[in-house]
């Protein structure tokens, strides 16, 4: 989606073909919908629930021709295949090391089936993000050097989508939380109620807080809007500390800032919201 955002911002025609029923299926459906609508308003053509049946390129033509599974045909000058990553495991081709679906299998210490051999980053297939690999590197180095054991809680890894507007999240989405817990409460605060967002003219988006209803422990946060990738770190810290929405609501946030949306979402969760 990032490349679609970049190219469409440069007035380059973009067509997205998605096999699933919506874009960015790993993120909150409401957040993904906002990004999808923004892309469409930028002129991006989006096909969902279809696959590419054929691709052809003739030497005497510059364009690439496509046929989709619904028989739609179109042509384009370039093709970007963005369906995931393939791990580069050539470094272990000559040794017997356990793999799972092509990725190097590791335990909770990030150690492989070979003692004292560790695998981090995309090759272990956990969460293929640069900051995940960095965190795994520190943990693997700690464990390899004989320090007290450290592990990584992948629920606490923040995810960022650098579209316009941006999406950031940590923990469970609303759908995942409802499928996992019987007693959750979800609170959403619109960016349009935030003073900094209003003054900057970036009112698209929201902050959504998902918490366990009895004690208010934060289970997940989803944000969509301007600069939300800069704000998700606060939510990660609260979740790492098993923080509650009440504690978040008691945390003083500077004004005017976009981060006040987190403060407001927590207060709304407690039925003490000021801005609506």
Automatic annotation (TrEMBL):
| FAD/NAD(P)-binding domain boundaries | 1-137
* A biological-process GO annotation: 2-oxoglutarate metabolic process
The answer on whether this UniProt entry bears the keyword Oxidoreductase reads yes
The organism sits in which domain of life? Answer: Bacteria
| Gene Ontology molecular functions | dihydrolipoyl dehydrogenase (NADH) activity; flavin adenine dinucleotide binding
Q: Which residues form the Pyridine nucleotide-disulphide oxidoreductase dimerisation domain?
A: 157-265
Per UniProt, the keywords (alphabetical) are: FAD, Flavoprotein, NAD, Oxidoreductase
Q: What is the required cofactor set for this protein?
A: FAD
Question: What InterPro entries would the database entry show?
Answer: Class-I_Pyr_Nuc-Dis_Oxidored, FAD/NAD-bd_sf, FAD/NAD-binding_dom, FAD/NAD-linked_Rdtase_dimer_sf, Pyr_nucl-diS_OxRdtase_dimer
Entry similarity comment: Belongs to the class-I pyridine nucleotide-disulfide oxidoreductase family.
Q: Which PANTHER family match?
A: DIHYDROLIPOYL DEHYDROGENASE, DISULFIDE OXIDOREDUCTASE
* Protein's name according to its UniProt entry: Dihydrolipoamide dehydrogenase
Organism expressing this protein natively? Salimicrobium flavidum
